[in-house]
Design brief:
alpha+beta; Ubiquitin-like (UB roll); 5 strands; binds FE2/S2 (inorganic) cluster; 34% helix; DNA polymerase, domain 1
């Protein structure tokens, strides 16, 4: 879609209402609304477009890019709309729905995955910036039927109820352990504070991370 918005051509008031009438407030709003609808016609909102054929096809061609990355050990190459988040790439393009969309705004941690071993909020990460990286999601954490030690610890400690936050909690816990921020329950709480569990399983989650770090 073009970034160029059509300019609303409204002549300034001249003082002579006969030669160049000033637009009424109602007329101005009507004009703006019609032009605004035309701008988004190629993307979201339907309706008759006021754009010419060339402008309309430019608006239709959303900027997209090709990106290659490795997800859970498998190389993937895909062409995506430049605005696609890593979370949407995983869920909508690759069918990896283990990473959850909670807030979609970086506030809950449900979408946490590892990128080159570092935990990130995938909802805030643009997919097209990830050329060549390695992504690990909850689907790639186990070794066949052998659960990752932190996955097993979540089961042993009964560290989840609804489970919606659990994939993000586990990936964040893996990152926390790899970073060495597990010296005490307080330290784990601090470094896991970006992951919200609305069921309130925090005590057991911290216990699971602490016990797994202790076994390393
Ligand atoms: S969905 Fe990404 S932080 Fe909430
Ligand atoms: S287990 Fe329900 S939100 Fe965490």
């Amino acid at each position: 879609m073009s970034d160029e918005l059509p300019q609303c051509e409204v002549s300034p008031p001249t003082g002579s209402s006969e030669s160049s009438p000033a637009p009424s407030r109602r007329g101005f709003i009507a004009t703006s609304t019609v032009l605004g609808g035309a701008v988004v016609a190629g993307g979201v909102i339907g309706g008759p477009s006021l754009l010419g054929p060339e402008e309309a096809s430019a608006a239709d061609a959303l900027p997209s890019s090709r990106v290659s990355l490795t997800v859970n050990g498998t190389r993937r190459t895909v062409t995506v709309d430049n605005r696609t988040s890593l979370l949407d790439l995983l869920r909508e393009h690759f069918g990896l729905t283990g990473s959850k969309k909670g807030c979609n705004a970086g506030a809950c941690g449900a979408c946490t995955v590892l990128v080159d071993g570092r935990r990130v909020n995938s909802c805030l990460t643009l997919a097209v910036r990830l050329e060549g990286v390695e992504v690990t999601t909850i689907e790639g954490l186990a070794d066949g039927d052998q659960l990752h030690p932190l996955q097993q610890a979540f089961i042993d400690e009964d560290a989840f109820q609804c489970g919606y936050c659990t994939p993000g909690q586990i990936l964040s816990g893996v990152g926390c352990i790899q970073e060495g921020h597990t010296g005490s329950p307080e330290e784990i709480r601090e470094w896991m504070s970006g992951n919200i569990c609305r069921c309130g399983c925090y005590v057991k989650i911290v216990r699971a991370v602490h016990s797994t770090a202790g076994r390393k």
